[in-house]
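Query form — protein KilA-N domain-containing protein

QUESTION: What is the three-dimensional structure of this chain?
INPUT:
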Amino acid sequence: MKSTIQVSGQVISIFTKQKEEFISLTDIAKHKNPEATGLVISHWLSTKFTIEFMGLWEQMFNPNFNVTEFSNIKNEAGSNGFVLSSKQWIEKTNANGIVSTAGRYGGTFAHKDIAFEFASWISASFKLYLIKEFQRLKEEEHSDLKLEWNVQRTLAKVNYQIHADAIKENLIPKTLSGKQIGFVYANEADLLNMALFGVTAKQWKELNPREVGNVRDSATLEQLVVLSNLESVNALLIHQGLPQHKRLVQLNLVAISQMKSLVNNIQLKKLKDGTALQTKPEKL
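ANSWER: The structure tokens for KilA-N domain-containing protein are given below.
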């Protein structure tokens, strides 16, 4: 995912790699010399202080960092004619804190820790503005995710009410007792469980005796989204007068289709903090 911020009139590109933000050193370097960004980055990389900082960062976060090559580069740093490019640094040390990409929108990107250090070398004020704009961007993204999550929660409540009303209006005779009415609701809830998870609540509990909660408590985010949608679909099918066994087939098809779509949904992935590979509903 790519985004941009504007710092002192300069557009700075940012992309996310394995949940970490990488900021364009090429764009930052334009603040100093827009005609020779590669040279600016190389001059910074060639200083002994930068090499020590980069080496420390890689040793902290990169288990595949080539420490031997780093030591050789560190010993050469400061000597006459010593020049180090980002490409040489990456190839020699197997560094991953800096990334070089080709193409029209390519350039040299670095992990935010490293990018802030580079910005400090460019200009102390530029670094401060960069940090402030980066923080503002992250706050906006967090606010957007919160809004999306709240909207989803609201939709889930609405769908639940629609589902409950459809059951009440079409499936519950007025002569039933409170216990019998509860059974009808539970039966319809298990219809959705069967369509999505392939088991009833009771069957899931028998299969997972040590698990706390129920089948829905253990559901993935994708499954919860689909479950909310199934409530709305089932309400429509109930109003249409379809018998339960036919509704089960339709709901199962909807569940399979929606799970396939949601597993690779980018917006939904933002809401997750890194979960295991999601399972798809069983085909009945």
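ADDITIONAL NOTE: The first helix runs from residue 25 to 29.
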